[in-house]
Amino acid sequence: MGFVRINDRWAKGHAATVEEEDDEEEEHAEREDPSSPMPRQSPVDHLFLEPELHFSYSSLLRRRRGRGRRKEKNKPKNITKFKMDHPKKQHPATRLPNDIVVEILSMLPAKSFLRFKCISKSWLALSSDPSNSNKLPATASSLFFHDTPYLTQGVKIHHISLSPSPDDDAIDTTLSFLPPHKSQKLIYCSNGLLLCCSWDATIPFPEDDGFYYYVCNPATREWAAVPTPKRGSRPLALAFDPRISHHYRIIRYNTDSFEFEIFASNTGEWTKIQSRWPGVTDCQVQRGVFFNGTFYVISLENLAIVGIDLESGEVSRNIELPASGIKKFCRKFGSDRIGYSGGYLHYALEDHDDIKVWILEEHEGHDEWMLKHCISIKPLLENYGIEYVPFPDRPLDYLDILAIHPDVDVVFLRVQRERVVCYHLNSGRSEEVCSMACKYIHGFFVYSPCPLNGLLGE
Question: Where are the compositionally biased (Acidic residues) regions (predicted)?
Answer without folding.
Answer: 18-27
